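Bug #77: duplicate submission created two jobs. Keeping one. Sequence:
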Amino acid sequence: MKVTVTARHAKFTDALKEVAYQKAHHLEHFFDHLKKIEVILDTDGDTKYSVEMIASGLHDHVIVSQKSDKTALAALDQVVEKMERQLIKFKEKLTRKGNHDTPRKPGLAAPAEGKADVWW
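Kept job's structure:
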């Protein structure tokens, strides 16, 4: 997996960039099929920092999360937590997709064999 850390509109320390790299690389534990993660560190005015994380994964799906906070490290922690939740939800969605035994609408039974598949 390729991890890219970019700073916009400000200079960030190498230590912060390394922490961002390590946290982004750790996201591979939640979803194995990640191809690339891009972390963008930015400033919002004079007092806030924003972090945006863009993950490219299986079937060219792109998952984006963005947070702002008073410190860059706090914003980074929040965006990593948000990305973890999104990756877990995406993985559950992919694993659930193979179960076609349930009816499409609640309260409707699956059609019997030989009958038309009418859902309106």
